[in-house]
Write a structure and sequence with these properties.
Blueprint: H1 8-16, H2 19-41, H3 46-62, H4 64-77, E1 81-85, H5 88-101, E2 106-109, H6 113-117, H7 120-126, E3 130-133, H8 136-143, H9 160-171, H10 180-197, E4 200-203, E5 207-209, E6 214-219, H11 223-230, E7 233-239, E8 243-244, H12 250-261, E9 269-273, E10 281-287, H13 291-295, H14 311-315, H15 317-322, H16 333-343, H17 360-364, H18 371-384, H19 390-403, H20 406-422, H21 448-455
Parallel strand pairs: 1-10, 2-3, 2-4, 4-7, 5-8, 7-10
Antiparallel strand pairs: 5-6, 6-9
Helix pairs in contact: 2-12, 3-12, 9-10, 16-18
Length: 458
């Protein structure tokens, strides 16, 4: 890891200091993964749906310019004001300029990973705009002054007792109260006042339909609808990869999204926004922020198929045991580890190495992104570009040299077996992180080569 950057392993060590929390986090996410399996197994056409979704996204990525142009034209005909942002800074400036033009300094925002990626909340706060996140999980982490740790379950790392303390401090609930119904009711009262008094609302976009110029926002709480319908100004922020060609394609993704995310048959609210209501302004910001660069990387372009369900996180043994904050990027987990290096290879050089490459993420991905293969590929790119941990680079070069020279390899094996048998403390000590959580294996009596020669009379 380059000095000065955050490091997944070091951040995971902090999370792992609380073993009880790690176990609880692991079990909770595995419970969600198991729900996903049950939901998927209720559909005999599940694999056909995945294949269909993957092919639709292939078509989109191959014709992205045409679909974006078609979508822009239709959206403008619907009365939507369309903006284009090349990067996060331009996106944030556009949002601020819209708010300033209306003299708005307080607003509500539903869950949007794109705005997290662009650090919109911090930017608006620095420019005197108050932003209230209205998704319950997002509001909880906002009160805790933390980023989300999961793209679907943003406060999955927090226990109900901790949320009770937060609500007692900020919303005035009784001290020690941790009943989810009581806390939810308190949040409802708190957010209702925000919905009724804010003139502007920001939402994300799950799917944008080129054929009609409409966009779809999926929530389980209806908070996006409350914000958008009560506000004078609705600003929707979407990554340019969220396009699908036709409305007929939508059902494929809606059937996959909720089942993959939480095991539900469908998201509670799948709201279509097409035209602003009378007296309302509707803005839509189409954001690149590195997506076209990723599109140009042949080995990684499939990552743009992601529909942000979080299934890869729920199944990942590393994510479940290291927590979302250890990934130090807006989108954590396996998918985040292949998206983040595209934005900044140096800053996120550690993330592709935070994986066992077991392939479970690829197996559950509803749009068939080859996530573990891309993680492996990123490792090669990062090493080649010189961003890998120097110690790891030296170790890999030493291994490459050893494996390339049979004589040295055989003697290294013999030496290793002797050391493990006679001087195990040289490798099994506190300085060797590999053995911190592992038992020393018994050294074999002979190498496979020696065994083979002996048993085949060579």
């Amino acid at each position: 890891m380059i000095k000065g950057n955050k490091d997944h392993a070091a951040l995971a060590d902090i999370f792992n200091q609380d073993e009880a929390r790690v176990d609880w986090h692991d079990e909770t996410l595995w419970f969600v993964r198991a729900k996903r399996d049950k939901a998927a197994n209720t559909l005999s056409e599940w694999e056909a749906l995945r294949e269909n979704a993957s092919q639709i996204k292939d078509n989109v990525l191959s014709n992205l310019h045409d679909y974006l142009s078609e979508f822009e034209s239709n959206a403008q005909q619907n009365g939507v004001i369309v903006h284009w942002a090349a990067d996060a800074a331009e996106h944030n400036q556009i949002v601020l300029s819209i708010l300033k033009s209306k003299e708005i300094s307080r607003m509500v925002k539903s869950k949007s990973m794109l705005t997290e990626e662009c650090h919109l909340n911090e930017y608006l706060h620095q420019n005197g705009v108050e932003v209230i996140d209205t998704d319950l999980g997002e509001r909880i982490v906002q009160l805790a002054e933390e980023p989300p740790s999961h793209i679907v379950l943003p406060c999955i790392h927090k226990k109900k007792e901790e949320i009770g303390e937060l609500f007692h401090e900020h919303l005035g609930t009784p001290k020690g109260a941790s009943d989810p119904q009581l806390l939810t009711a308190a949040a409802r009262v708190h957010l209702r006042e925000k919905f009724l008094t804010r003139r502007a609302a920001i939402t994300g976009v799950n799917f944008a339909i080129a054929e009609t110029g409409e966009f779809v926002v999926c929530t389980n709480e209806g908070n996006a609808d409350m914000g958008a319908h009560l506000s004078e100004v609705h600003i929707a922020c979407m990554g340019i990869e969220k396009i699908i060609p036709k409305r007929a394609n939508l059902s494929v993704f809606l059937r996959l999204l909720a089942r993959s995310a939480t095991g539900q048959p469908i998201t509670t609210y799948s709201s279509h926004f097409r035209t602003p209501r009378k007296g309302q302004e509707m803005h839509l910001i189409l954001v690149d922020n590195g997506r076209t660069q990723q599109l140009g990387r042949a080995d990684f372009r499939n990552s743009l198929k992601c529909i942000r369900c979080g299934a890869c996180m729920n199944t990942c043994p590393v994510y479940r045991r290291s927590g979302g904050h250890s990934y130090h990027t807006a989108i954590a987990g396996p998918i985040g580890a292949i998206l983040a290096p595209n934005l900044n290879m140096k800053q996120y050089a550690d993330l592709p190495f935070a994986s066992t490459l077991c392939g479970s993420c690829t197996n559950v991905c509803p749009v068939k992104i080859n996530i573990h293969e891309q993680l492996y590929k990123w490792r090669q790119v990062i090493v080649k570009e010189g961003y890998a941990d120097p110690k790891k680079t030296i170790a890999m070069k030493a291994m490459e040299f050893t494996l390339s020279h049979p004589y040295i390899y055989r003697n290294a094996g013999k030496s290793g077996r002797w050391v493990m048998k006679n001087m195990p403390f040289l490798v099994n000590n506190k300085l060797n992180a590999w053995y911190t959580q592992r038992d020393m294996p018994a050294p074999p009596q002979q190498s496979f080569r020696e065994w083979y020669k002996k048993n085949n009379n060579e």
